[in-house]
Amino acid sequence: MGRFWSLLFLSVPVLGTLCYLAGMLTRSGPLALWFPENVNSMANEVDQLHDLILALIGIVFVATGLVLFWFTWKYDASVNDQPVRFVHGSHKLEFWWTAIPAVILIGLAIYQLKVWSDVKIRRPMLAGLDGQMDTADDQPMPPQFEVVARQFEWRFRYAGEDQLLDTVDDILGDVNELHVPVGEIQVGSLKAADVLHSFFIPALRLKSDIVPGSQQIVWFRADKPGSYEIVCAELCGWGHYKMKGRLVVETKDEYQLYLQSLRAKQYQRDFSQPSVAQVYERDSGETGGSGPLGTNLSLAGGAQ
Amino acid sequence: MSNSTRSVWGWLTTYVFARDHKIIGLQFLFSTMLWFLVGGMLAMAIRWQLAWPWQNMPIVGPMLFSGEGGQISPEFYTSLVTQHATVMIFFVIIPILTAAFGNYLIPLMIGAEDMAFPTLNMMSYWMMWPAFLLIGFSFFVPPYGAGAGWTSYPPLSVLVESSPGSGLAQTLWLGGVACVGVASMMGSVNYLTTIIQMRAPGMTFLRMPMTVWGLFITAILQAFALPVLTAGAVMQLTDRLLGTGFYLPELASANNSPAVSGGGQPLLWQHLFWFYSHPAVYIMILPAMGMVSDIIATFSRKPLFGYKPMVLATCTIAGLGFVVWGHHMYTSGMSPVLGITFAAATVAIAIPSAVKVFNWLGTMWGGKIQFSSPMLFAIGFVSMFIIGGLSGILMASTPVDVVIHDTYYIVAHFHYVLVGAATMGIFAGTYFWFPKMFGRQMSEFWGKAHFALTFIFINGTFFPMHLLGAGNMPRRYADPYHFELFADMLPLNRFITICALATMASQAIFMLNFLGSIFFGKRVGRNPWNSNTLEWSAPSPPGHGNYDFQPIVHRGPYEYGNPNHPRDFHPQTEPGPEDLTSPLQEVSHES
Fold first, then answer.
1. Chain B residue with the nearest C-alpha to that of A48
2. Which of A99, B2, B485, B496 is the most exposed place for a label (fewest CB within 10 A)?
3. What is the pLDDT of residues B100-135, one digit of tens each?
4. Angle of helix B307-321 relative to helix B286-300, nearest 10 degrees?
5. B304: nearest CA partner in chain A
6. How far apart are CA A202 and CA A262, in angstroms?
7. Counts for chain B of helices (H) and strands (E), in that order
8. Which chain A residue lies closest to B568 (C-alpha atoms)?
9. What is the domain partition of chain A in residue ranges?
10. Number of continuous H segments (helices) and E segments (strands) in chain A
11. Dihedral sign computed on CA atoms, order A206, A209, A212, A214
């Protein structure tokens, strides 16, 4: 029976590796079981880091799996006629198999710092008064759009001509649809109207929880025109699973046209329906985003 | 009459309100196994929905929710994921390891008559019952349970209007969790005192078996981390019931509810919750690691490789375990600068985990491996812990975690640790100590059949989940398939569900074997496995007071295969030379 058990343990690294290889091969096929294509050029390093770590742990996974198989095969009591190796340990081995993983792992922790700071800490900057980058008066880039997450939909607002949010020329976006120009750095401000949500765009390698009562800042540069899905990744209630949005990456001209059409709609709407509450109620009705307990109008949140 | 009253009283104090650690251990074992069944059923319902979304659940569906025609509703789905995790973590894995095995084994393995505080011990079991009843009852409050996830993040868990499950069911849930906290606290104080104060003569700290080390360090983790969760849960209760605002931001509101003046911080709960719940991960794995170390040494007929490094690794994991809670919060909105510290501590915790794996492999190297059912489950533990541990490194890296956080990658990872490793450890321990508990042995044939099926189907269930995670399929989605991104994942989810159902079905073998062997198993003597540790020199099952002689400990627990000794094992109680040809294990000559 020992042979059977050794082979059973051998099947783990073999089938596990095959499983991962199959996943990677579907990267571009119809049955996508791998990370979607990354279109955010500011997060290329995330994918490289993932591949590096996956390669490292893949090697350890296969190596330890093979050792486990070999030991259960060779030292099976029913076939091993050698006497038991009566040892209690080895200082030398303990030292090396502590030191080598330690060096690799601590190295990894340091190596990934730059990637982390690029995607989450170092917000894109604009040149200050002196018109030059990397000088002391650089300003953090203001957000060009705002996301307000609520049960169970995404609402968007654009900064308008003055490039600043919370000013009179802000443009109210369509529900569940965010437009951005291709190839430009975009900064977004995230707010939640009711409970926790998480703004997750797999194609941008971007995820940020949104905490009611505070603001999150995200940034990216989408380099490929197209339509990508926005996913809510933090449990936000019974309709969590249907909180689907769409990111449309388009050329600068298309983007400007879209904003103009939004602005036209907004002015039309302002004269005929001056109440913001009515606008929200109508939108909730259109998208079916309201909860079972009534509409989702909330007193909190930044969209008003 | 008075005679029968006395006998009823005697029966009650012996078997129901028992103060004997062995009875309490068995009470915990049976209670947790029943909850294991409940938690498993909940998992099957989750898997049903993911494989055949919105289709009527066969057999159980109409019984549970005939109103909806046996279909799982989205609000019931959030209850399912919440209750599955709650039951499995708070009612199964933590109590079965720390309370069932902890209670049964600690006094026996250190040569004590009983726990230091038998009455406190009894109360720790009976404090579980309010928790069982509160959370059990919350299943019957529409929509059949709390639905804010086992993590119970506010505002969802605090604003009653935010979700159908955030009403009474959530209040009951929080009350239940607070009771579990009190019960575990009572247990952990008891285990600590017993291990520090009541070791038999000669049982120095560095002669304690790894099982006791695992339970000892776990008790420290529980004693220091659990009060934080208990207090946090009470604070959430007062937010809900008394209108305090610990976790609610200013003007919090959901679903048109009147805005409340909160002034608190939703992230505060996440910090308090994970300050407990990350050490809880180690609470759920360290005792199993200890048991597996003992079992691998016993059935390799060889001393445990690197006993002291193993002890040190256990302590290091526990110490680092207190400073890594933030890795659950990389994307939570906490300052990303904090993430750097937590990432460094988290990758560091992989070092002692790796040391443990290498030492288990080192123990098998050059041994004579007996493939008994406990040993198979122990090797299964190592095999699956490797997978769960390695995938953890991906998540420890902050930028990578941003992508895979809250996807099935995480689900695959922690199920490999908790189902793959911890549950394998629990089965290994059950097969191993069953003879001590009941004086009979479980069927080896059915034990091995149980192992083969469980091992194959658990891997079949959880390994492909890594691919779902790589495809970024989010957790806690009742129906992900209306997204273009996840539309192709239905066939793989069906495969996973079939494996999960098969895993569940395989447990019938275990249940029949377990229950049948209590009455019909092969009778065995004190030491059926030829093991060294102290409990095997006591009668099987041990009577009240445990030992029929005063155990005196002469050596460490792992003297297997000594060529200078006539037998291939050398029990700790057996008098004889204390010399050890050991490069690592210097025995201190106390007592």
1. B400
2. B2
3. 999 999 999 999 999 999 999 999 999 999 999 999
4. 170
5. A88
6. 26
7. 21, 4
8. A84
9. 2-82+89-120, 139-287
10. 6, 12
11. negative
- The shortest CB-CB distance from A23 to any of B252, B467, B563 is to B467
Buried (b) or exposed (e) across B154-173, using 16+ Cβ within 10 A?
A: bbbbbbbbbbbbbbebbbbb
Give, in order, the Cα–Cα distances in Å from B496 to each of A228, B44, B500, B502: 27, 11, 6, 10
Among chain B residues, the shortest Cα distance to A120 is held by B336
Name the residue among B30, B101, B83, B117 with its Cα closest to residue B514: B30
Q: Which of B79, B158, B163 to mutate to test the interface with A (most CBs of A within 10 A)?
A: B163
Q: Give the distance from CA A201 to its chain's centroid.
A: 5
CA distance B277 to B269: 12
Which of B296, B402, B416, B473 is the mutation pick for testing A, counting most A CBs within 10 A?
B402
pLDDT tens profile B442-493:
999 999 999 999 999 999 999 999 999 999 999 999 999 999 999 989 999 9
Of A12, A20, A233, nearest to B383 by CB-CB distance is A12
Using CB atoms within 10 A of its CB, is residue B80 exposed (0-12), middle (13-18) or buried (19+)? buried
Residues in chain A with CB shorter than 8 Å from the CB of B359 are: 89, 94
Give the CB-side neighbour count of residue A302, counting CA atoms within 13 A.
26
3-state helix, strand, coil in chain B (%, to 5): 65, 0, 30
Q: Nearest Cβ partner of A88 from B256, B394, B583?
A: B583
Q: What is the pLDDT of residue B578?
A: 57
Q: Is B321 exposed, middle or buried (0-12, 13-18, 19+ CB in 10 A)?
A: buried
Predicted TM-score (pTM) of the model is 0.92
Q: Which residues pair with A230 in a beta bridge?
A: A245
Dist. CA A263–CA A252, nearest whole Å: 16
Comparing C-alpha atoms, which of B174, B150, B148, B143 is closest to residue B159?
B148
Quick one: CA dihedral A269, A272, A276, A277, positive or negative?
negative
Would you tell me which CATH number, out of the four given (3.40.50.10380, 3.10.180.10, 3.30.565.10, 2.60.40.420), belongs to the domain A139-287? 2.60.40.420
Question: Domains of chain B by range and CATH?
Answer: 21-537 (1.20.210.10)
Closest approach of A201 to chain B, Cα-based (Å): 9
Pairing of strands A153-158, A145-150: antiparallel
Three-state DSSP at B117 gives coil
Q: What integer pLDDT is reported at residue B536 of this predicted model?
A: 96
Backbone angles phi, psi at B40, to 5 degrees: -65, -45
Nearest C-alpha neighbor of A230 from the set A202, A256, A258: A202
Query: Tokens in use for A136?
Result: 């002391």
String of b and e for B292-310 (b: at least 16 CB within 10 Å)? bbbbbbbbbbbbbbbbebb
- Cβ B371–A1 below 8 Å, yes or no? yes
Work out whether the CA dihedral A114, A118, A119, A123 comes out positive or negative.
positive
Closest Cα in chain B, distance from residue A10 (Å): 10
Calpha distance A240→A238 (Å, rounded)? 6
Query: Cβ-count burial of B432 within 10 angstroms (0-12 exposed, 13-18 middle, 19+ buried)?
Result: buried
Structure tokens at B161: 């209007």
Q: Report the residue from A121, A233, A238 with minimal CB separation from B74.
A: A238
Burial classification of residue A277, based on how many CB atoms lie within 10 Å of its CB (0-12 exposed, 13-18 middle, 19 or more buried): exposed
Q: Are residues B222 and B216 in contact, defined by beta-carbon separation less than 8 angstroms?
A: no
A232 contacts B386? CB cut-off 8 A:
no
* Residues B384, B361: Cα–Cα separation, whole Å: 14
What CA–CA distance (Å, rounded) separates B218 from B321?
11
Residue in A88, A97, A235 closest to B156 by CB: A235
Kindly give the parts of chain A with pLDDT less than 70: 28-32, 269-304
